[in-house]
Design a protein that fits this description.
The structure holds two protein chains of two kinds. Chain A has helices at residues 19-29, 59-64, 111-129, 132-142, 186-191, 226-232, 244-258, 273-284, 307-317, 322-325, 341-352, 384-387, 390-397, 407-414, 424-427; strands at residues 2-9, 37-44, 49-56, 75-81, 89-91, 97-105, 145-153, 158-162, 171-175, 179-183, 195-199, 204-209, 212-217, 224-225, 238-239, 242-243, 265-268, 288-289, 292-293, 319-320, 329-334, 357-362, 401-404, 421-422. By secondary structure, chain A is an alpha+beta fold. Chain A starts with a strand and ends in a 9-residue tail after the last helix. In chain B, the strands form seven sheets. In chain B, strands 12, 15, 18, 20, 23 and 25 form a six-stranded antiparallel sheet that branches. In chain B, strands 3-2-1-4-5 form a five-stranded parallel sheet, sandwiched between helices. The N and C termini of chain B lie far apart (50 Å). Classes of the chains: A alpha+beta, B alpha+beta. At the A-B interface, helix 1, strand 9, strand 11 and strand 13 of A face strand 8, helix 9, strand 13, strand 14 and helix 16 of B.
């Protein structure tokens, strides 16, 4: 999983813009999509070539080590990734290009290797066809998987696109009469002060060059990643014209409708489940309370690489607020359950602070399958939702009841039919793979 | 009847066509800086004539009008107005539908237009400042650079109408990107100073206006100087590329209807906009003591500050906006011209079809920044195929050479129009015609597929709804047009009072 961002300046005065500033803030906005590595590639007007810069760590840390002059240029792309050493791809021949990607093309087991092959194919096709848009379109038609990408070439092009199902998002924005920007989420466009103008369609390739923006599309049924709406994307983002916040509001409402239970207070596990808890409360008329205070910077616990880090992350970040829980029957809402460890910990902490009962509700269906498109879900034999029933899980995590959101409830919350969504992590069935 | 027209863009092709449709069956004569093939054809067909001539040369234009014994002249573009071509024609007793130099000041000098608006208290104003040099501009921009005054979020423009070039809008809202944007503002001020060197007819070089946000629309009107008649609203799309990205152009396409308003502008806002344009036309006539007879248009925006607001004025029809309105016009266009010339416009009932229209421009790659690259490519158009799609085709920046070969001339090459009951349908009709226009040397063309699409329309409506809520709230609180600012160590400031002060000092 990754967050990608592209910056493209037009017009006679384009050289006056420095893309690295925008990439820095754009990637900072996408930090939640990957916290292990940061990288970028810039087109340098002085040398008429591409420059790469990268490092492991957060955007702040990696940019902090870069020299200003090394990353100066009016065109640029960047990436944050949830994997260490997962940097912007570099291809030298036949056409020099840099590429950043989210998700995973189905070309290799390893995400980075897969994008490396993808980028090499793109370079070769562009060289052969002499038509960058056609090359990108053809490639999207050929390569299965769930991915979005932004490539920057030595000849001042920025080419971006999404797989035919549009599994991974890619949004477009504009600043004044000068700048076009592309990002995994619209919030990154807001942060740099761009007007969000739309999204790249599933199967669509878009070619930015100094003289034009061209679009070409392979028409196909869509299958947007549903997990983006539940968990991955920022609350203030729009993906594919759908508001993430609206979906999460609907999820809270559906949770209240699907598995009602009597309680004194609703509490959401920070951060993702807070909006669920608020609309759950609104629809159940049970008051909502803030249940926890966090220590340390925001770490996305589900995508932390190691188990130890994850538990430490949870203990560090979630300290229950006693007056919210003491002597109360609680509905505790979380966004997803992976292994159940963190939830067990949380329920235990609540009870120690005096919670009488804890009913756990999950804002997504049980995770049963590992995402082949690069979202970090642990191996299947580590997924508690695959192995155990609701009652068993309740017993293990020490809750008084436990329920998931139904798949139907999730689709209705997003507002799209089942057939237009990728629900693979909940069903085990994925679009866009060779074995389907 | 003999009519002579001036100009060579798609707008003029549409004007010539509207004249040709008339029951008066006029013979049509035309002058163009280049040979628009469409106008050329109409002239031949109606028994008129076509000649290449500098359209800003009032002597030459007048000579042609005399030679051809035309009954009146109609002017398409703005530059002949700025060069007093209508004035010279009238001096020689040739009636002219077109704004004379003094009244065309509302377009030629964006600064004078604003001053007039403030002086006469016409609604739909923006705060502004003018500068004679880049140095002067950025010293002021810099002085307030670390506070959130209106000088932070600005449009930097050439103070003169300069072929729709050089406008930059810099919203400097994010303090963390401030240095970056401030640097760009200064650099653009330099660019403007250089660009304006070629215009010696104006003292103000750089215009800085407060940046506003909202949906734009064009209200085009006929006027005989006594009354004003509004046409259906049109929305033009200025960005060169898809997704509203990229350089400012003369307009890559426009939508209208169905009916007089747009899906995102209310009837009430239409009426208010018409009042503003009407008032402005009266004001300029009062100011310069001359009659305005011809076409006038307000490039408007719905803003949170004042609702319908003037961004710029046109002393002519818009291009491509002219195509939208002339194609739904039911009243005889020659009758309208005659009413304008006779001062009888109020008695004429002007009617339009209640249809939706979409126009899209197709331009060779290179437009608008590298026009040399966009020039001299041989053009092929399958006009029968476009007709079969139910669309209409207009030549723009195309030059018919001896022997009939047509070559691109660097700007918007052709414009294609569709009429339907819905904007979205018309947009799709136009899209189907795009492959029927080609450059024979395989140089690339571009156009905007997104104009008139459901996505772009819903985006406009969404923006309009938000802006409408804001300005209506201000209206209810009696706050329209008010601005309050606060500067650390200075205190509360009233930018409107400051501007009025500045303007009155200037007047002394």
């Amino acid at each position: 999983m990754a967050g990608i961002f592209g910056f493209y300046a037009f017009g006679e005065e384009r050289m006056n813009w420095d893309s690295s500033k925008f990439i820095y803030y754009g990637l900072s906005a996408l930090q939640g999509r990957g916290q292990e590595s940061t990288s970028l590639a810039i087109y340098s007007y002085d040398t008429h070539s591409l420059k790469w810069a990268s490092g492991d760590g957060l955007v702040d840390e990696v940019f902090g080590k870069m020299k200003q002059e090394d990353v100066k240029g009016f065109l640029g792309i960047g990436q944050v990734s949830a994997e260490k050493g997962d940097y912007a791809i570099r291809v030298e021949e036949p056409i020099q290009l840099a590429l950043v990607g989210d998700g995973k093309p189905e070309l290799h087991e390893n995400r980075q290797r897969s994008f490396q092959i993808f980028a090499e194919m793109l370079s070769k096709k562009m060289y052969e066809l002499k038509d960058p848009l056609e090359a990108a379109k053809k490639l999207i038609g050929e390569v299965k998987g769930g991915y979005s990408f932004i490539a920057l070439t030595k000849d001042e092009r920025m080419i971006c696109g999404r797989d035919v199902h549009g599994i991974k998002p890619l949004e477009v924005g504009a600043i004044g009469f000068d700048i076009g920007a592309v990002a995994s989420e619209s919030s990154a466009l807001d942060v740099i002060g761009a007007e969000h103008s739309g999204y790249i369609k599933p199967g669509e390739a878009v070619n930015f060059d100094p003289l034009s923006i061209e679009r070409g599309r392979i028409n196909h049924e869509t299958a947007y990643c549903s997990f983006e709406y539940v968990y991955l994307a920022r609350l203030d983002s729009y993906l594919n014209s759908i508001s993430v916040s609206k979906v999460r509001e609907m999820i809270g409402r559906r949770l209240a409708e699907e598995n009602p239970v009597k309680a004194d207070v609703v509490i959401g596990v920070p951060n993702t489940a807070i909006p669920f808890s608020m609309s759950y409360s609104e629809n159940s008329e049970i008051p909502v309370r803030l249940g926890f205070t966090r220590t340390g910077r925001h770490v996305r616990s589900a995508i932390k690489p190691s188990q130890f880090d994850r538990i430490v992350g949870v203990q560090l970040k979630l300290n229950p607020i006693r007056t919210s829980v003491d002597g109360k029957e609680i509905i505790l809402i979380d966004d997803s359950v992976v292994r159940g460890n963190t939830l067990r910990n949380t329920v235990y902490n609540l009870k120690r602070k005096g919670a009488k009962k804890v009913h756990v509700r999950i804002g997504s269906p049980p995770l049963i399958s590992r995402c082949p498109f690069g979202t970090e879900v642990p191996p299947e034999d580590e997924l508690i939702g695959r192995a155990l029933s609701n009652d068993e899980i309740a017993e293990i995590i020490g809750a008084d009841s436990f329920a998931y959101l139904s798949i139907d409830g999730l689709c209705k919350s997003i507002g799209l039919p089942r057939s237009s969504l990728c629900l693979g992590c909940f069903t085990g069935k994925y679009p866009s793979l060779h074995n389907n | 009847m003999k009519i002579m027209g001036l100009g060579n863009a798609s707008r003029e092709h549409a004007i010539a066509e509207a004249l040709e449709r008339s029951e008066h069956h006029p013979r049509i004569f035309w002058l163009g800086d280049i040979g628009n093939p469409g106008i050329f054809e109409i002239c031949k067909r109606t028994g008129g004539d076509f000649a290449l001539s500098k359209t800003t040369d009032s002597e030459k234009v007048s000579e042609y009008a005399k030679r051809w014994h035309v009954d009146f002249v109609i002017i398409g573009p703005e530059e002949p107005n700025f060069h007093a071509v209508p004035d010279e024609l009238e001096r020689r007793g040739i009636p002219c539908v077109g704004a004379s130099r003094d009244v065309a000041m509302i377009e030629m000098s964006k600064a004078e237009m604003r001053r007039l608006q403030w002086e006469y208290g016409i609604r739909g104003k923006l705060l502004f400042k003018t500068f004679r040099s880049a140095q002067e501009a950025y010293s002021v921009l810099e002085r307030y650079s670390d506070t959130l005054t209106w000088l932070q979020n600005v449009a930097l423009k050439p103070a003169r109408q300069a072929g729709g070039k050089g406008v930059k809008v810099v919203e400097d809202q994010q303090l963390y990107l401030h240095d970056e944007k401030q640097r760009f503002k200064s650099k653009h001020a330099d660019w403007l100073e250089g660009y304006m060197k070629s215009y010696s007819d104006i003292d103000d070089k750089i215009l800085v206006e407060e940046k506003v946000w909202g949906p734009e629309y064009t209200l085009q009107c006929f006027t005989d100087g006594r009354c004003i008649k509004g046409m259906p609203l049109v929305q033009d799309n200025k960005h060169a590329h898809e997704f509203d990205i990229g350089t400012e152009t003369g307009g890559m396409g426009s939508i209208s209807g169905p009916g007089f308003t747009l899906p995102f502008i209310t009837k009430e806002e239409y009426e208010e906009s018409l009042k503003i344009v009407d008032f402005l036309v009266r004001a300029i006539q009062d100011k310069v003591g001359k009659s305005y007879h011809g076409m006038v248009a307000g490039q408007m925006m719905l803003t949170e500050i004042e609702g319908p607001t003037i961004i710029e004025m046109y002393s002519r029809l818009g291009d491509p906006e002219a195509l939208n309105v002339l194609n739904t016009l039911k009243t005889d266009f020659v009758d309208i011209c005659l009413a304008i010339l006779d001062g009888n416009l109020s008695k004429l009932n002007i009617e339009f079809d209640e249809k939706a229209t979409v126009v899209k421009a197709i331009a060779p790659k290179g437009y608008p920044d590298n026009r040399e690259m966009a020039k001299d490519h041989p053009v092929f158009v399958d006009r029968q195929a476009i007709k079969r799609e139910g669309c209409k085709f207009y030549w723009g920046s195309a030059d018919i050479r001896e022997g009939g070969e047509i070559k691109s001339a660097g700007s918007r090459l052709v414009e294609i129009l569709a009429i339907s009951d819905e904007i979205e349908k018309a947009s799709k009709m136009v899209d189907r015609c795009i492959p029927h226009v080609k450059l024979l040397d395989s140089w690339g063309l571009f156009y905007r597929s997104d104009i008139g699409s459901p996505e772009l329309l819903s985006k406009r409506m969404d923006v309009a709804d938000r802006v409408r809520m804001l300005y209506q709230y201000r209206r209810d609180k009696d706050m329209l047009g008010k601005r309050v600012d606060w500067l650390p160590k200075v205190g509360k400031m009233d930018p409107v009072a400051l501007l009025r002060d500045e303007l009155s000092k200037r007047g002394e």
